[in-house]
Amino acid sequence: MATIAVYSLKGGVGKTSLAVNLAHAATICRRRTLLWDLDPQAASTWLLGGDSPAADPAEAVFARSVTPDRLIRPTAIDGLDLLPADASLRRLDSFFGVLGKRKRLLRLLNELSDRYDRIILDCPPGLTETSEQVARAATLIVAPVIPSPLARRALDDVVTHFANAPGRHAPILPVFSMVDRRRALHLATIEAAPDWPRIPMASAVEAMTLHRAPVALFAPTSVAAQAFAGIWTGIERRLAETT
């Protein structure tokens, strides 16, 4: 089982759309997949139709009040399950601080390793205790970056932070997100890192909120759908090289 964390220091960079589309791409590769929404805004949860109230708050999994199985629910996509988020996750950072369990997320993921081949984490933004737990637990961190110098600087801060933090942290795969090739600044930024995968600024991605579905389900031939599929192929190749 591999855990792919979709994480950014900043919000509004296409993190949730990337997480949902990667989760769908994993099912196309016949991977038993779980999308675990860790963001209290619960955008992934809403996009995948899991926004009806659960019997227990999402935070209860980390408190060990309930097992993940109690909250996991199937989605309309064959092979994709969802562990939904809710507002209780706003307290997760303080909870981790009080708990003092630096590997709680890792242990919970290990408990799910027999059930899933791939777990996608949609992470909240910011450098927090939650992001530290994610970095220790993930196999790979996928970091969407808007192509601008300020966003590149934010990513550099994250890379430096994790490199200097004690213990093992997952490698980071940066992905240019919301690329608009009409903008000179975007072109200059992606030309400086030509090997980074990229996702275009596309109406198909914006339409996810109308369809409440991954792009490949309603616009399978779009450039955006091909971009997400290509990124997942690269992730699978990278995982295969490390095993």
Explain briefly what this protein structure is.
The protein is 43% helix and 16% strand. The protein has 243 residues and is an alpha/beta fold.
What does this structure look like?
This protein has an eight-stranded mixed beta sheet, with helices on both faces. 42% of the residues are buried. The chain is globular. It is of the alpha/beta class. The protein has helices at residues 15-28, 43-47, 68-71, 92-99, 104-111, 129-137, 149-164, 184-192, 203-206, 208-211, 215-218, 223-242, and strands spanning 2-6, 33-37, 73-74, 80-83, 118-122, 140-145, 172-179, 198-200. The model has no long low-confidence stretch (mean pLDDT 93). The protein has twelve helices and eight strands. Helix 1 (15-28) crosses helix 12 and helix 5 (104-111) packs across helix 6 (129-137). The termini are close together. Helix 8 (184-192) links the parallel strand 7 and strand 8 (198-200).
| Order of adjacent strands in the largest pleated sheet | 3-4-2-5-1-6-7-8
How much β-strand is present in the residues? Answer: 15-25%
Most strands sheet? 8 strands, mixed
Helical element count? 12
N-C termini distance: 11 Å
Summed over residues and divided by their number, the pLDDT gives a mean of 93
Q: Which bin fits the share of residues in helices?
A: 40-55%
Count of extended strands: 8
Radius of gyration: 17 Å
Contiguous runs where pLDDT drops below 50 for at least 5 residues: none
Order of helix and strand elements from N to C terminus: EHEHHEEHHEHEHEHEHHHH
Q: Tell me, what's the shape?
A: globular
What structural class do you assign from the helix and strand content? Answer: alpha/beta
